[in-house]
Specification:
By secondary structure, the chain is mainly beta. The protein is 4% helix and 53% strand.
Length: 330
């Protein structure tokens, strides 16, 4: 009996709630929709893409400290801290806006493929890569000069990207249910791996220490993929309408932000990745970023009103001046 009770207690502890909850909200305001959010852990800043603007928030004070305006349907922000530069993908103008991370002043706008969406900085080659959703390719840019180097095919519609810091990038292919590995120096796709039964993978995160990738899928699952083999090793359940994924190496936790208004927390328990907690967030809070310094998760959200006029899908309108950042932590 004592042995049985010990097993039960250990199992209960493993699946106990992680203690994460919404701590507060940071109001930004303004109008329009949003996409990616990026945290600069070293500078204690957050970059929120917001229609034609990137809003910049100081994470220590919890207040907006600036913005980068007059953009063109912004999607993502990549940071090159070794050269104090940032890069913004403009989906409407097929370009990247280069800016100074200290002054936020813009310094260039190199061209890309069609509808650049996710964007990653690869430090070994000092190149920036955009992943272009309409032309199914990637544009490599010299981060020092801002010069476009080449645009190459990736084999499908690319979504989120991650860089391993050692010359490789990984990208979900939404229409193929696959992950591609890119050699940044070539640059070219060198491997492709199926992550079936994942459907329409979007968000992607990496645990570089254990060598696994986390993809969030439209059919309410997260696939955990071994990088060496590019084979799926686990499929924990997550919430509905996921978009972004994140990983906190200090806490050993993976996250999925779900448009239904939840944040799924995934953890390795007994050698297997499993969903261990669900945090209630807000409807539409589907993109996020993890700050490994504070172990906090930041999600973009807004308040909603009646359906938009003329919208056949009946999607709700975003109430003016309601855009904000949700802060989740312990």
């Amino acid at each position: 009996m004592k042995k049985l009770m010990t097993v039960v207690l250990v199992a209960s502890a493993a699946f106990a709630a992680e203690g994460y909850h919404v701590l507060n909200k940071i109001k930004i305001g303004g109008t329009g929709g949003w996409d990616y959010v990026t945290v600069d852990s070293n500078a204690h800043r957050l970059y929120a893409t917001h229609g034609t603007v990137v809003d910049v928030v100081d994470l220590d004070s919890g207040k907006p400290v600036g913005s980068i305006p007059q953009l063109h349907g912004v999607h993502g922000v990549a940071l090159a801290p070794d050269m104090n530069k940032g890069f913004i993908s403009n989906g409407q103008s097929n370009s990247v806006t280069v800016f100074d991370v200290k002054t936020l002043a813009k310094s260039g706008e190199p061209a890309t493929g069609m509808n650049p969406d996710s964007i990653c900085y690869e430090p070994k080659t000092q190149r920036v890569f955009t992943f272009n959703g309409r032309s199914n390719d990637s544009t490599a840019i010299n981060a020092k000069t801002g010069e476009p180097l080449t645009t190459f095919p990736v084999g499908g519609k690319p979504e989120f990207c991650v860089a391993d810091g050692a010359g490789k990038l990984y990208v979900n292919l939404e229409d193929k249910g696959a992950i591609v590995e890119i050699d940044a120096a070539k640059p070219a796709v060198v491997r492709t791996g199926s992550i079936a039964p994942c459907q329409e993978p979007s968000g992607l995160a990496m645990d570089s220490k254990d060598g696994v990738l986390f993809s969030v899928c439209d059919n309410k699952m997260m696939t955990v993929t071994d990088i060496k083999s590019l084979k799926v090793v686990a499929m924990p359940a997550i919430g509905a309408n996921p978009d972004a994924a994140g990983f906190d190496p200090g806490a050993g936790l993976a996250f999925s932000s779900n448009g239904e208004g939840t944040l799924t927390i995934v953890k390795e328990v007994g050698g297997k990745w499993q969903a261990v907690d669900t945090v209630q967030t807000e409807r539409g809070a589907r993109t996020m970023a993890v700050d490994p310094r504070t172990h906090r998760v930041y999600l973009l959200a807004a308040e909603y009103g009646p359906p938009q006029a003329g919208d056949k899908k009946g999607r709700p309108s975003i109430l003016p001046d309601s855009f904000h950042v949700l802060v989740v932590g312990k």
